[in-house]
Amino acid sequence: MTVTVRFAPSPTGFIHIGNIRPALFNWLFSLKTGGTFILRFDDTDLERSKAEYAKAIENDLAWLGVHPHRIDRQSERFALYDKAADVLREAGLLYPCYETADELERRRSRARALGRPPVYDRAALKLTDEEKARFEGEGRKPHWRFLLPNHDGDPFITRRTDVSWTDMCRGDQTIDLASLSDPVLIREDGTYLYTLPSIVDDIDMGITHVIRGEDHVANTGVQVAIFKALGAQPPVFAHHNLLTTRDGEGLSKRKGALSIGSLRDAGFEPMAIASLAVLTGSSQAVEPMATMEALQKKFDLSSISKSSAKFDPEDLNSLNAKLVHEMEFCQVQERLISMGVNVAEPFWLTVRGNCGKVSDARTYWQAVHGPILVETADEDREFLAAAARLLPEGEITSETWGVWTGLLKAETGRKGKALFMPLRKALTGLEHGPDMKDMLPLIGRQNIQARLP
Ligand code: GLU
């Protein structure tokens, strides 16, 4: 079987670290299986869906390294949904209902008060043609419900009807269709809810595996019934856990700060974000993977845990730093140039271990080329003057620092921090940074001399 998966966002906002997880899971699964990955915009809500959000999602995915084989838009596929609705109507499985939202709410409250589950009682199935005509005459428009197959011919006598599937993340799952209301598939204004278009597309696009958040588990029983009503075999399902903050809060409040665009602007590496998003909430250690290929090897749907995926946005900093420490010069050269850091390989190899983000290289660029601002403490003035005198002749190499500080130690009696720190500060303007033995050749004799009294 060739695998076909889809990531199906509604383009009603920017994607963030939580909702890129299904994108990444689907992408990695397609890489693992040599399958096809479709980006499907669920944009049937024409008012809330925006082309600029769809574009931003495409760009964010590309930046992360997710490259769809195909892009579809539900807003261009209404004819297919209309056809499927007709098929269901003709089979007597999609029926018009005229209750208002208020009426439905009253009925639900009554059921709850009587201790009954608030399941829709299918009253609309009892409407005569005259009653329907009267409603229409009053200007009421019907919404349409799918008749769940939870009865033996008489829809008013339901019986337990288990829909079961083996979920690739959650194991065996069962939903009793008799516990559910017939789902509304089409609203009064004729617009589709998410359910039917999603199933029609999954069938039409030959989706073999539906990998999505566990907030959709409850929908799956209904969806399986509709797949079957449309004569199709349901796909394999995998419902992954949802990302929350450490204290269990959903991401809704932090969405802005954790949007992929703002993380990119803050200088994070795509693979740090992808590694965190994929490995958090799994039995795998959360480590930075340098490539999608490496992440794909670590990724396994069955290793996703059943409890929520708790994460601390701070973890991104350490993952990012670990990736940056290993990055080759060729991977960063262009970015460095675009930041005005026009350097050769030895500079990068010297500073990368001290960079949490690639952009931190700017700090060390400044430390090398200046200008640097330091106030020399009075007690260090003489020491630094001695340093200026004792700087070894000849080329400044990685040996120079050891020889130089050896001479200084002998002459001044200083050692440890009292020996190194005034030099580091005077020569780089910083209290921390890469090894001075490697910095010295980058700074060069001229700058060294200029920075000493
Ligand atoms: N548009 C739906 C969502 O974003 C897709 C759910 C699904 O994958 O079936 O929740």
Automatic annotation (TrEMBL):
ATP binds at residue 253. It is found in: Cytoplasm. One of its GO terms (biological process) is glutamyl-tRNA aminoacylation. Pfam families: Anticodon_2, tRNA-synt_1c. It catalyses: tRNA(Glu) + L-glutamate + ATP = L-glutamyl-tRNA(Glu) + AMP + diphosphate. Its EC number is 6.1.1.17. GO terms for cellular component: cytoplasm. Keywords: Aminoacyl-tRNA synthetase, ATP-binding, Cytoplasm, Ligase, Nucleotide-binding, Protein biosynthesis. A motif ('KMSKS' region) lies at residues 250-254. Residues 3-317 form the Glutamyl/glutaminyl-tRNA synthetase class Ib catalytic domain. Residues 377-452 form the Aminoacyl-tRNA synthetase class I anticodon-binding domain. It is an enzyme of class 6 (ligase). A motif ('HIGH' region) lies at residues 9-19. The keyword tRNA-binding does not apply. The keyword DNA-binding does not apply. InterPro entries: aa-tRNA-synth_I_cd-bd (IPR045462), aa-tRNA-synth_I_codon-bd_sub2 (IPR020751), aa-tRNA-synth_I_CS (IPR001412), aa_tRNA-synth_I_cd-bd_sf (IPR008925), Glu-tRNA-ligase_bac/mito (IPR004527), Glu/Gln-tRNA-synth (IPR000924), Glu/Gln-tRNA-synth_Ib_cat-dom (IPR020058), GluQ/Sye (IPR049940). GO terms for molecular function: ATP binding; glutamate-tRNA ligase activity; tRNA binding; zinc ion binding. Monomer. Catalyzes the attachment of glutamate to tRNA(Glu) in a two-step reaction: glutamate is first activated by ATP to form Glu-AMP and then transferred to the acceptor end of tRNA(Glu). Belongs to the class-I aminoacyl-tRNA synthetase family. Glutamate--tRNA ligase type 1 subfamily. This is Glutamate--tRNA ligase. It comes from Roseibium suaedae. The gene is gltX.
